[in-house]
Amino acid sequence: MVLTPILTAHWDEADSYTLAGYKRHHGYVAFAKALKTDPDAIIQTVKDTGLRGRGGAGFPTGMKWGFVPQNDGKPHYLVVNADESEPGACKDIPLMLANPHSLIEGVAIASYAIRANHAFIYIRGEVPHVIRRVRHAVDEAYRAGLLGENIQGSGFDLDVVVHAGAGAYICGEETALLDSLEGRRGQPRLKPPFPAVAGLYASPTVINNVETIANIPYIMRNGVDWFRQWGTEKSPGFKLFAVSGHVQRPGIYEAALGTTFRELLEHAGGIRKGRKLKFWVPGGSSVPMLTEEHLDLPMTYEDMAAAGTMLGTGTPMVFDETTSVLKAVSRWLQFYKHESCGKCTPCREGTYWISDLLKRLEKGEGKMEDLGTIEDLCRQISGRSFCALGDAAATPFPAAMKFFRDEFEAGISTPADQAFNPLSSTVFVKAKG
Amino acid sequence: MSLTETTWDEARELAERYPQSRSALLPMLHLVQSVEGSVTSDGIALCADVLDLTTAEVAAVATFYTMYKRHNTGKHHVGVCTNTLCGLLGGDAIWKAVSEDLGAGHDETTADGLFSLERIECQAACTHAPVVTIDWEFFDDSTVEGVRAALKKLKKGEDVQSTRGPVVRGINATERQLAGFDDGEVHASAIDDKMLAGLNAAKALGQTLPKSEV
Predict the structure, then answer these.
(1) Do A251 and B196 touch (CB under 8 A)?
(2) What pairs with residue A238 in β-bridges?
(3) Which of B30, B51, B188 sits opposite A164 (nearest CB)?
(4) What confidence tens digit (pLDDT) does each residue in A319-351 have?
(5) The domain that contains B121 carries what CATH number?
(6) Which of residues 266-325 of A touch B (CB under 8 A)?
(7) N or C, which terminus of chain A has less Cβ within 10 Å?
(8) Which residues numbered 392-411 in A keep a CB inside 8 Å of some CB on B?
(9) Residue B182: what pLDDT?
């Protein structure tokens, strides 16, 4: 498999984020084509590509669009989930920084297809440098007559609002995001009804990830066969992979789906000098970790599922042998505890107890029964929580226990910082050997 | 600073940007915080009045999101990511050093009112770990020395540029930007080698696509 610079093709041009820079490379040609196409035909095209959501769950995008009832007399909305905050995920932020117009053009085409006249881009609040870029792109598009009323004389109207969040990981959950966008606490809603039927302001709403929407202009211009030349039957296309952690060259690598993790790791220069791989997490902290035995797995939705994990956001975090798994898992659980919205009991109470027990083990003051208690708590949370945050919180511990049980058992007598010198895992430490 | 007629006008302007005015609550809370440095009772009352909500409804929202502060904060907000990856790769060491230097812990402000310190969660910049933010501008691939130098400059009142380009201008200026009042700094940011790692590798390997396709 090969690298496929498509979304990233022109990121190295100084004006890649401007309308002029984008137009130089077919920018908004796809939107012009879309405006002359039957909206249902666009939905069918996206269905035919097999494009799957790039935000983590991998739901087929065209199918999501197709769920929106038509001729129902209600306003429809498109909401872009730009709340990227899953530990490990760092692909949408650079995309919006470097090429926000691919997102805006995708928003315009998607809105036209689902018959929405209002779209929102919900960006997490902690990234002002990115919010500036997206707002600027929207302003440029308005000035060029690519957004607003009667766009290019087509009779299609579209308003786009860029909305800044205020610090809550849970708002990446699509119904929590909707509540947040309605000016409420970001807490998930009971489903059904699904957003396609009753979403924003109780109207039909499609919520898509940034990268998903940014794929649309390229698909619209180049077609289904072009898109399907990469990837597999179940995971067609290409993907932004962000490789982070103990590798020589961490960064964004856009490649065909189905590229093996070994190949990605090679592009990233391999594990840092003198060290070896301990474990890696393919798609954000919410998916189970893997080890060296999984290096040759293709990065696809189905291969990751078969290995008992998920492709998730496609942003592998890589850790070498200087890493304390106990500390890593403990810190992730502190994160889930901090970000639990408090709505449902299993997640609110469970994340609290698990993170406390893990902290005790991390200090080397754990008790033998703690491991069983944590396993029990994970079982009580998983599948019993209101939303996927609970399931995610119950994921790292059992996955880590599968490979590194001894490290957790050591937490009964040995502090993690004693077993693993914290300095060794930092990037400040000089290369070994 | 206190809330003036200008703030009221700007809040009403925000309410008009949405099909339903309540959607403007998050931006409006960023706005009142940008004026007063925190979300005060006055700020909550303003939002409630403009949106025709009760103060309890607004307070419930203001206390849910971590970026809103209900107590006095410093001129600059300093965030150190101590989530797993950043923490292990150096964030913990940076946190310890900065916290000791400033004599402030998590969610605390220095005595001189210059810095508020926070252990922050993942900033979606894991490829650039360890990450520090000042007024939510990014300091990628941070080191203890680098953060110390930046804070020293800010203490002296000198300009500090984030690694992604924008100069830090105080947390209130950032909050105003987030509320939706643009500061015109869009051109200050730049893409770096880590974001271009794949593209550069593809070019070196001759794996780019025909111009007609991309």
Answers:
(1) yes
(2) A256
(3) B30
(4) 999 999 999 999 999 999 999 999 999 999 999
(5) 3.40.30.10
(6) 267-268, 285, 315, 317, 319, 323
(7) C
(8) none
(9) 93
Instruction: Report the residue of chain B nearest A337, measured CA to CA.
Output: B121
Evaluate whether ipTM surpasses 0.95. yes
Name which of A16, A29, A118, A132 to mutate to probe chain B: the one with the most chain B Cβ atoms within 10 A of its Cβ. A132
- Per the DSSP assignment, residues forming a β-bridge with A162 are A121
pTM here is 0.98
* B90 lies in some domain: yes
**Residue B143 resides in a domain:** yes
Strands B108-109 and A277-281: unpaired
Distance CA A334, CA B97 (A): 21
Which chain B residue lies closest to A326 (C-alpha atoms)? Answer: B84
Cα gap A32→A156, rounded to integer Å? 12
CA distances from A153 to A36, A76, A290, A293, B48 (A): 11, 21, 53, 57, 41
Number of domains comprising chain B: 2
Domain match, B89 and B153 both: yes
Helix (H) or strand (E) segment spanning residue B44: helix B41-51
Measured CA to CA, the distance from residue A222 to residue A193 in angstroms comes to 35
Strand ranges in A166-230 using DSSP code E only, listed in sequence order: 205-209
Q: How many CB pairs under 8 A join A and B?
A: 273
Nearest-CA residue of chain A relative to B17?
A: A161
State the residue range of the domain holding B132. 76-171
In a domain, B181, yes or no: no
What percent of chain A has pLDDT above 70? 99
